[in-house]
User: Fold DNA repair protein RadA from Janibacter alkaliphilus.
Amino acid sequence: MASPKTPGYRCTECGWTTVKWVGRCTECQSWGTVEEIGGATTRTAAAASLSRPARPIREVDAEQAAHRSTGVGEFDRVLGGGLVPGSVVLVAGEPGIGKSTLLLDVAARVGAQGDTLYVSGEESAAQVRARAERIGAVSDHLYLAAETDLATVLAQIDQVRPRLLVLDSVQTIASAQIDGAAGNVAQVREVAGSIIQRAKSTGTAVLLVGHVTKDGSIAGPRVLEHLVDVVVQFDGDRHSRLRLVRAVKNRYGPTDEVGCFDLADGGITGLPDPSGLFLSSRHISVPGTCATVTLEGRRPLVTEIQALVTKSQIPTPRRASVGLDSSRVSMIIAVLDKRAGAPVGGADTYVSTVGGVRISEPSSDLAVAVALASAITDLAVPHDLLALGEIGLSGEVRPAVGVARRLTEAARLGFRTALVPKGALADASPPAGMQVVEVVDVGAALQEVTRRQPRTTPSTITASA
Assistant:
């Protein structure tokens, strides 16, 4: 009988072994982590001398980790106050979303405080100069370099000694000492490790541009996100000018802040007050619309939800939603049909948000239900009324997080009536000039909306008992 073969290769990530080399570990699905099991291993000896010995924590200067403003208020909000010297920020997003435009603007503004270096591995220096002139980001202290070799990039850093380094992008830089093309696992690790080591030793803040895969995740090895200090994600619809910047990871600040930007031909500008972008004309009441307040990080945004219900011409009714979770909209339709007696089961329903905003939190459920009911009955919701709350399968309305903060923002924009879950303001008082109506279920909310607006057509909804 043939003796079993001894495993000769092991995955450095999960420890899976195999007798043959493979490019991808079948256990943890990591690329380039399967290595040959070598000979005898030796222990690492201690260093003969220490260049930076450990110090008592009270002797460490905390000012070295202080934030420095980039000059872009919305970007500073996401970073927690600005860039920290020696920090490495990974900025990821889809192609054409505005990453390079924003970072070029940041590099020019930081150039007023010291020299900055912008290294482009995707465009020539002339192309970057043309964009800088278009967005008004030309500065005497902004240096441009079009390089794809890691050794040359490190030499550029040593020569300029910049206050800020922008590397666009990390997947286009390669080291001649590492096998493989630029962008593979080994190259990304080497580039990121070398840049991070240089940033920590010189105190240079670094902004790395990262590519994303087709499913929206950051391309490259997962260890890249662990090595950097901050991971920032760009979001936005390509057909809309609105761009949202979120911090996925932040060692120097919170991760629940969101920056809003307007991407136009003249560049990208911050939006300190973006709520007006998500509302249509509020002068008249139109059936099928209802406003709500969502939380993007810590920032409340007043958004409007529109619904349209029509008679279906096919056996299986259509269910279309834009900017909302389609499965959650289907659940709300089922609750309306079962708990509120709404004749929506055999009708085509279309639900959308205004301004291209995407709503993922469940606090918008009640506004979706009110908009659908308004579209069914042709009963217009008052333009100064909003609704917020999560809807359960039994029809109950559950509390949302940060109701007081949401209502304060809505009152500032002129809303005077709010439908909220019962007990949502137990520890806070409603804003001045706003009437807060607490509801326990969907039926009570629809009754309240009906009571506040005369019917234009006979209603077909009967509230649940």
Confidence is low (pLDDT under 50) at residues 454-465. Residues 277-452 form a domain with the Ribosomal Protein S5; domain 2 fold (CATH 3.30.230.10).
